[in-house]
Every structure is written in structure tokens, then in C-alpha cells.
Sequence to fold (437 residues):
Amino acid sequence: MVNKIQAIRGMHDILPDQSSLWHYAENLIREVMAAYGYDEIRLPIVEKTELFKRSIGEVTDIVEKEMYTFDDRNGDSLTLRPEGTAGCLRAALEHGLLHNQIHRLWYYGPMFRHERPQKGRYRQFYQLGIEAYGMAGPDIDAELIMLTYRLWQKLGITAKVQLEINSLGTIDERTVYRAALVDYFSQHLDKLDEDSLRRLNTNPLRILDTKNPEMRSVVAQAPELMDYLGDDSKAHFNGFTSFLDSLDIPYVLNTRLVRGLDYYSKTVFEWVTDELGAQGTICAGGRYDSLIEQLGGKANYAVGFAMGMERLLALLETLPQPPVLPSLDAYMIRVGDKAEAVGMRFAEQLRNELPLIRMQVNCGGGSFKSQFKKADKSGAAFALIFGDEEAERGVVAIKSLRSDDEQKSLSLIEAVNYLQTAFKDANDVKRVLHELN
Ligand code: ATP
Ligand code: MG
Fold:
């Protein structure tokens, strides 16, 4: 027997029974993006390796060990995007979107990182990314928080997530702080683990981000970046928190929040949950003004975040009633030669009259009994039945599969009206469900 080829470790299929939860979240995301006037940008999945090295930073986890990098047939080094910020800014610079303009952008799609696969950590995973260009003030930073907060409300998970914020100051402020931090940790070398010893020389701020519980106390007593901020950074941070206060968004100041990527300055934030174990960060971002010049653009402003979709969906699955909508309204059963042709034509007319109907026509034959079983299993609200008698009389038998309503024989026009009313009610139910969340 030929052996079967399996998917790559850490890269997952999203099967049909899971896709309705994805659609549910994606639809709400689109609604929220529209509500705040954000435009979608679609970007390539592959970029030049240099782009990520220059933007993310050589001494980050991503560039050091997580990238899928390969030479294409011309010998150019290319990389599957590990995140979207770099590619989005590359596109914005390439197409002049930063020339005296303001942009609010979002993108959605798979990212690739060669990590050790575990719950909430995959090698291909989906991100929603937001990038806002050309705005200096803390108001846009706060808008990003509002927008995510609104999404949590719509999804019904507000109680399950907490906002953590911090300021990373400017590069200059960080340089001074970094020296103080290296000085401090150098006095406590015996308490650092192997990773942290390595980071002491390459990226000491990342030590603060350690997940090693044995290092908790040495990290807790380290100098705090907040004490090294200049007036401008302080004012920006205070402005940001004032907006959050006036909008009634709860947050915690986490002075250890440094983010894994090099390009952030001033505002950084994470939405975290304690319901998903170690992989608790759902959404993370911040301001990264300096990256624009780093990628060859003129000084400008940029702030954004990325949201991990698998972690978001895992959180939705912890809800008492995960919001899954039925995928079919009607299932058509056809038994007999004439019924097969008449039914198929009738189905097309129904789709003309009711453009939103989601209907499957039984294909491949089978007895009435076996087709009816399939109709029931399909999750549809109604079975539309054509036998020889119906085909002869030009009617369809409609049977509710989810209530005790009696079966009815209806003409095409009657059937359209009947289903229209039934679906209108069903849509109301859906809308209510939606608003409850
Ligand atoms: P972590 O500390 O969990 O490794 P990160 O700092 O590397 O996260 P970001 O680069 O900020 O993550 O990505 C933003 C979001 O994307 C994360 O908060 C998370 O929700 C999601 N994410 C990142 N890496 C993965 C992954 N390997 N699998 C699934 N989701 C991921
Ligand atoms: Mg990571």
C-alpha cells in the first residue's frame, strides 16, 4: 500500500466543522474594521529575507531561529512572512502611502514561524494585523485599544481578557536604560539562566520577558524603564492612559512588558488571558515610528498590533455556548426520474427568489429514507421533498426538521413566501444572538 502523506508538523487543516467559527469571528472583525474606517491591504506571503532581518532585528527569536528561509531559483534569499508589520510598511513605502497621508490599514492571513509546536503555538498560524500610519498622538494608540475592546464585546469575551500596557520610550532612552539593566544583571549573574546570560549581551530587555519562574525575583528587582523616560515619552504615555481612563477601559501597567521585536518605541500593549495556559497573549502591539526610517522612509509615525486567530478561537471555545450558526437552511430530497429534473429546476428558481438561502440538493440518488436521513444530519431547518406525485402536481412538500410543524404541499410561489417568512424569523434570531455577544 502507498503510504499517506501527512501535513507538516505545526501546520493545521481547518476542517469544515471548524470553519463556521472562523467565519463568525472573521465577519465580526470585518464589521469592526468598517466601523472605525480601516481599509484592507493584501500583501504577499513571501518577502525578501533582508526585509525581516532589517525590521524585526537580528537578535530576536524570530530572526535567530524561527524563520522559514530559502533560496529561490535565482539564488535570492526569500522568507515566508513571520509577521505582517514589515511587509505592510514595505508596501506602504513602495507605493508612497506615507506621503502627506494618513492610513488606517488591516490585513489578515497566515504567518510562518519555525517554533516548537504546542497548544496555541503553531508553525503556520493566522493573524489579524492593524497598522495606522501618519499619526503622532496617543489618541490613535487609544483607538487601537478601543477597536479591539469593541471586538471582545461583540465576541462576548471581555471578561476573559486583560489589557497590559507599558512604554518603551525612545531608542535613546532605551540605550541609557539598557546600560543600567546590563549593570544590574551583571551583578546577579548567578541567578540568570542560560537564555538570559546569552541575552545579556545581545538583547538584555528580553530578559525581563523571561518565562522562567526561578528568575522572577531577580527580574522583579531590576530597574524600571518607566524611570528612564524623557518628558515627551512621559507625556505620550500619560495621554494614552488618560484616553483609556475616559473611555472606561481597564488596564494594568506591566513594566516588564518589552515585546519580542526590536522596532517598538513608546506605547506597547498586550491583551492577555489566563484561560489558555502558557500561550496567553491574544493580541500584541505598539508604536514603531523608528521602523519607517530603518526601512528607508522619511521620519513618520506608525502604530499597530497583531492578533493571533487560533488563540482567539480557542478562547471562544471556552464560552459556555460557542457561537456556531447552522450552515444550511434547506436540504432537497428528490426521488424518481421526473422528480430529479423538476427538483433541480425548482432549486434554481428558489435561489433566484431567495438569494440568501443556503440549500443543498441531494445528489447521487438514494431511497427516500436514506435521503431523509442525510437531510436530518445536514443540520438544515427544512427538507424540501420531491417525489413523483409532487413533480406531477407542480408542488413541493416542505417538512420542518427542527419543529413539529406539519408537512405542507406548496406551489413555488407559496414555498418562496413560506421560506421567506421562516428565514426572516431565523435571521432575527441570528441578529439577537449576535447582539447578545
Ligand atoms: P509569544 O510571546 O507567544 O511567542 P510573540 O511576541 O512572538 O508571542 P507576536 O509576534 O507579537 O507574538 O505576534 C502577535 C500574536 O500572534 C501573539 O500574541 C499570538 O496571539 C500570535 N502568535 C504569535 N506566534 C504564534 C504561533 N507560533 N502560533 C500561534 N499564534 C502565534
Ligand atoms: Mg514568539
